[in-house]
Prior knowledge:
globular, mainly alpha, 6 helices
Amino acid sequence: xxxxxxxxxxxxxxxxxxxxxxxxxxxxxxxxxxxxxxxxxxxxxxxxxxxxxxxxxxxxxxxxxxxxxxxxxxxxxxxxxxxxxxxxxxxxxxxxxxxxxxxxxxxxxxxxxxxxxxxxxxxxxxxxxxxxxxxxxxxxxxxxxxxxxxxxxxxxxxxxxxxxxxxxxxxxxxxxxxxxxxxxxxxxxxxxxxxxxxxxxxxxxxx
Length: 207
């Protein structure tokens, strides 16, 4: 069973509709609502086990909402924009929490923020908002790696015999995820610039 593009039916085109209240969109909102719960569990209650469980549920909903959207023809224009934004904001908010908790160093947060800051600046410059680009395959893989590595890293803070193993495996996933993050950002930068220049050229030619 494939993980990327799971649920797609062969020969059936994927059409984004204007629907708002769909199951995938609800799952995306639920996933993002898990962030404040995670923050409270880690920073206030120091419950790393439950925090890791929340992250695992959030990661699973990221796959489930995509599967449902493709399988049951519930892909929407709102979800196309909201889903990657929710993923990105969740990863950053979780990273900030882990920095404050002393689980990761500041450089990990910087490695996530710098590419996103560049993409945000370019998006505002060219489009004054979201560039509406399709999520790349490397971007999906990046998100999956980070969503798996983060709860494993949180689990490594529990007083269990396998803590070192959890930490090692977690950093393998996170390291690969960060590499993918920068590669995806590089590709998005040129996609934004190309689309932005094309739109400006078309606007200039229409006057």
